[in-house]
Amino acid sequence: MNANNGPVANAKPVADAWVRVDETGETQVTNELGQFVFTSLQHSKQYTLRARAIGLGEVPRQVVNVPSPSGEYDIVFP
Questions:
Q1: 35-77: per-residue pLDDT in tens?
Q2: 28-67: b or e for each residue (b if 16 or more CB lie within 10 Å)?
Q3: Best exposed site among 33, 35, 47, 59 by fewest CB in 10 Å?
Q4: Inter-residue contact 59 to 51 (CB < 8 Å)
């Protein structure tokens, strides 16, 4: 989870952001490195993620495939 004022490469991690999976209702909070983990998602499915952070607002819904090739997803606040 990153806050961005330019290219993604310049984005900074966002701690304490909420990330939610619409299909399951599960929510996680990002750590100090902006990381979050969902352990109950099924492989070979698509999920819709939402993210929100105090002072940064909400990121538009993002559809992701599980698993991703890298095992990671970048969600960037505008």
A1: 999 888 888 899 999 999 999 999 989 999 888 878 788 888 8
A2: eebeeebebebeeeeeeeebebbbebeeeeebeeeeeeee
A3: 33
A4: yes
**What does 15-58 look like in DSSP terms, one character per residue?**
TT-EEEETTT--EEE--TTS----SSPPTTEEEEEEEEETTTEE
State the Cα–Cα distance between residues 5 and 9, nearest whole angstrom.
10
- Tell the residue number behind the tokens 């939402």, with chain if given: 50
Output the six-digit token pair for 14.
């966002």
DSSP state of 11: -
CA angle 28, 34, 38 (to 5 degrees): 30
